């Protein structure tokens, strides 16, 4: 059996080593710059639409179409395996936009565990926990009370607590997210990066009852 090191789980350089591909990338760069400016313009409109429309299947459909123009084409595999009664989604962590991508498919909240609060927290699509949550035990209890509310949206947590390339393995999961809810929906994210677009495949596994 081939042994995989932890260094294979991370990409330490963005550009390929192949000189021919680098030449093609250089020739493509003028088109890429124009496309980048266009996508920045469209991205601002995606943000405005997300803020203006209430959370619904209509908003998710519109934003999903607009994100496809941005190169974020989202596909969902095995939708029948998703349990709509699940209160907690557990997912691997590939990019810093994983929670935004999953929100295009289903309504859920991702708590902000670290980083700036206030407007930046809201603009990035995170749920602010407020002041007073200092220890991991308090965090677990706060999120458990949140999940116990019938009107609350499901939670989305990333037990890896850091991003990897998602191709060669997973970081060791933290155990505390599994104490938040008795019903857990495992989710797997697979990111493919062709020459231009980024394709993210959303997979669900059977629900786990603890």
UniProtKB/TrEMBL annotation:
GO terms for cellular component: endoplasmic reticulum membrane. Keywords: Membrane, Transmembrane, Transmembrane helix. It is found in: Membrane. SUPFAM superfamilies: Glycerol-3-phosphate (1)-acyltransferase. The chain crosses the membrane at residues 20-42. The keyword Oxidoreductase does not apply. One of its GO terms (biological process) is ERAD pathway. The keyword Transmembrane helix applies. PANTHER family: ANCIENT UBIQUITOUS PROTEIN, LIPID DROPLET-REGULATING VLDL ASSEMBLY FACTOR AUP1. This is Ancient ubiquitous protein 1-like. It comes from Carassius auratus (Goldfish).
């Amino acid at each position: 059996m081939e042994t995989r090191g932890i260094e294979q789980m991370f990409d330490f350089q963005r550009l390929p080593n192949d000189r021919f591909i680098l030449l093609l990338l250089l020739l493509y760069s003028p088109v890429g710059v124009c496309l980048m400016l266009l996508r920045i313009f469209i991205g601002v409109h995606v943000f405005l639409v997300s803020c203006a429309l209430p959370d619904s299947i209509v908003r998710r459909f519109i934003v999903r179409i607009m994100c496809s123009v941005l190169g974020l084409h989202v596909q969902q595999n095995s939708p029948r395996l998703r349990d709509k009664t699940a209160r907690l989604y557990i997912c691997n962590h590939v990019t810093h936009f994983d929670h935004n991508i999953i929100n295009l498919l289903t309504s859920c909240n991702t708590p902000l565990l670290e980083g700036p609060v206030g407007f930046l927290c809201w603009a990035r699509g995170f749920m602010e926990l407020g002041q007073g949550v200092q220890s991991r035990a308090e965090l677990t209890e706060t999120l458990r009370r949140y999940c116990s509310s019938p009107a609350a949206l499901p939670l989305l947590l990333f037990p890896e607590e850091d991003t990897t390339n998602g191709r060669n393995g997973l970081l060791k999961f933290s155990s505390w997210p599994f104490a938040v809810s008795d019903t857990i929906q495992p989710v797997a994210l697979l990111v493919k990066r062709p020459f231009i677009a980024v394709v993210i495949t959303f997979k669900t596994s059977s629900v786990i009852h603890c």
